[in-house]
Design brief:
Chain lengths: 451, 451
């Protein structure tokens, strides 16, 4: 049992000065007890949850911003072909090295937890590994090595489209039976612990058909699904199910507060209201959605309806929660020609409102008691450097606005604690150099093998 | 005369290996002559031009992302009130300290030149300083101190709107006669030198009326104007002039390649074609335009029409050319639901095409021979660290895509040269600490005086 004293801390809804907590043996905050405490200077805020991502895609950051010579136009769907090609070259060891470095980048950026939406399960030829959870275990090792809080979401992925079989490029992702998937899932659930939760994902309504989706619903744990990311997906769903994706899902599946609806970009006002009423978290990935040209989610409508959000770095083209939130708000401003769209009378600071909401929604989405600094929740926190040039001159009223919106130059993130353990000090992860060396040699080998 | 040998350099249109230049006494690149050369490792690219900005606004970064309690909605126009309040507290010494630190941030981010659209001319009560160019000279000193290339654009600003007088809050900006402005302008023109150019700006069609605009056109040098940033401005211009702003300007003013049209957000297809045909540069400020909720400029149309662009950090809420270009491209993707919008067959790398175009257009816009690495142009260059985690595994084909689009963590900008002088080495400006200390005390005093 250790204890911490925070000079300035962002609690559930507001800043407080001189707050103390104990940290229990599970890495949770607890009411303070007598004894020595570690004093923490700087602006202390809850660690951000990275609610959605695919770790292996970190290796293609920057490789798909180039127009393909044979195509007149690039899109999400051509990007996906490049991504499949990369996915088919990655071994469990590669994945561990990529994910470990990615998690270092996340921790240094202020993410203290990550939900891994993990669908590269099998060998490149589609056969299961001797341990069918071998790729999942690579993710678990990477998280343990770096000290990040993990929610592993093995993905059920069975079809190539609403009426199409899987293609050869997708065979590493495939499970043909929910029962087979469930056995792997049960095995992974034994790995749960203070820093590890295990849930499941249904890849999408394209890849998981209704009867399979209903079977998956009997599994315990956090449940995630990609939904309504692309307009073509909406069109196909309308044609096949006679309803839009979110509308269909909420009418046919018992979606509640263990669910995260990832993207939900293309939704009507009615669908927004239904999502908010369901208690589910809407998982927004602004930098990837911008990079892939998905579209702009109607955030203001969801917040007004009392909906919940998380953010995710998804493809990891950007690994920075500040940029996710900045781009999220800017998308709204560009859409509505107004400013401070996410703010309201209760939370007038746009940056503070976005950070609090995304951290809290993120905590809900990953099934850990993470995302806010209160007793009973995870001791996951980020200390901002008050001497960072972006934060000079700011007080509680605006410091998170400066943190999120004033960008360029070194990040104000100075120290990061997960589950009561310091993993980043003075901007550097405790094991940065060794993890980077392994990442580097992995990427260089992958580049060589892909020609 | 010194000489440099670049192992890998981005020349006018493409990468080359093993390129050498001499640097002449004016800081321009020249054909190499015999003698010792300094070898430069890393990815060498032309320095970026920051084509539009107002230095004093750096002090309000993060202060206006908070919803005003008395207002139901914030907008560009309510933001402008906050900005005026700040402007009215700044002395020449304050401005020098703010601008010097801002220019350090720019140089460390890879900007090697800046166009200062400078309109805070007079004392807070509206009377000229004893030296009417006192505020302009503060900008000149800041640039000289930091080593950034400067184009100073004193702004003529005479009216509060198409039919409105200036308001008291705008009195520091006012000149009532072009003749009076011209005398200050002539005095400033004597400051021109290898690193300093002086042009002028007309604030906007709101603030400068047609007869004044025609008088300004007789002045030499680069010419800039804010135009069509906000929809209300388009409405008012239509009402007053019977034409949209860009349309009116191009029909009534001899706009040519010395001109920069700043923002030009709200334009029709016909206006885009006219801008491209004029030879003028369109000055885009994506992060500020996102922050202020201006709207998304139709970049793809302009590039297709052969138009020219620059980028600017404007309000300096973000000081990072990578983020300007990333957001510029993402805006297009979100609008069109396609990817790699700025790329084409000749320049398939989106990042490379954006960097080359914005640097070259920026050079044109500021009246220095900057923006490309060829003999006769400025020795302004940026060296990217090949060991930066974002650049690992990349070759010439994609390195600028990774540089611009893969974000989070430390910037790959390692060393920066302006006019043949190293001003940033290993990511740090040569005079960083002293300039930051002055910035810090200035901001802390300004915050205190504003309460």
């Amino acid at each position: 049992m250790t204890a911490i004293h925070l000079r300035r801390a962002l609690l559930a809804e507001q800043w407080a000065r001189g707050v103390a907590f104990s940290i229990d043996d599970n890495g949770l905050l607890a009411p303070v007890v007598a004894g020595p405490t570690e004093a923490i200077d700087g602006w202390v805020i809850p660690g951000m949850v990275n609610g959605h991502g695919h770790a292996f895609q970190r290796a293609m950051a920057g490789l798909a911003e180039r127009r393909h010579p044979a195509r007149s136009a690039d899109s999400f769907w051509t990007w996906r072909e490049e991504m499949y090609r990369l996915a088919n070259h990655i071994s469990p060891e590669d994945l561990e090295a990529l994910a470990a470095w990615l998690y270092v980048e996340m921790l240094e950026a202020g993410y203290t937890a990550v939900a891994e939406f993990h669908y590269v399960h099998h060998q490149p030829d589609g056969r299961p590994y001797a341990d069918p959870a071998a790729m999942s275990r690579a993710i678990l090792r990477a998280a343990t090595r770096t000290g990040i809080r993990l929610t592993l979401l093995p993905v059920f992925y069975a079809h190539g489209g609403f009426t199409e079989p899987l293609r050869p490029l997708q065979r590493r992702f495939a499970h043909t039976q929910v029962s087979e998937f469930s056995r792997v899932y049960e095995a992974l659930r034994t790995e749960r612990g203070p820093l590890v939760e295990v849930g499941f994902a249904a890849h999408s309504l394209r890849a998981v058909w209704p009867v399979e989706l209903m079977q998956l619903c009997s599994l315990p744990g956090p449940a995630h699904i990609h939904i309504a990311e692309q307009r073509a997906e909406v069109t196909h769903c309308l044609r096949h199910h006679g309803q839009r994706p979110v509308d269909w899902l909420l009418d046919h599946v018992p979606v509640d507060d263990r669910w995260s609806l990832i993207h939900a970009t293309h939704v009507t006002t009615e669908e927004v209201a239904k999502m908010a009423a369901s208690g589910a978290v809407v998982g927004l990935c602004p930098t990837t959605e911008g990079n892939l040209g998905d579209g702009i989610f109607p955030l203001a409508d969801l917040l007004e309806a009392g909906g919940r959000i998380s953010i995710g770095s998804d493809s990891h083209i950007t690994v920075d929660p500040r940029e996710e939130l900045r781009l999220l708000e800017y998308g709204q401003r560009l859409r509505t020609h107004a400013r401070n769209v996410a703010a309201d009378a209760a939370q007038p600071s746009t940056g503070q409102r976005l950070w609090i909401d995304a951290a809290r929604g993120g905590g809900q989405s990953i099934g850990h008691p993470a995302g806010a600094l209160t007793a009973g929740r995870c001791a996951d926190l980020v200390v901002l450097d008050p001497d960072n040039p972006k934060l000079i001159g700011h007080s509680e009223a605006t410091v998170l606005d400066a943190f999120i919106f004033s960008s360029g130059g070194a990040s104000p993130v100075r120290d990061v604690m997960v589950g009561g353990q310091w993993v980043v000090l003075d901007g550097r992860h405790r094991d940065r150099d060794a993890i980077f060396a392994a990442y580097r040699s992995t990427v260089e080998r992958l580049v060589k093998s892909r020609g």
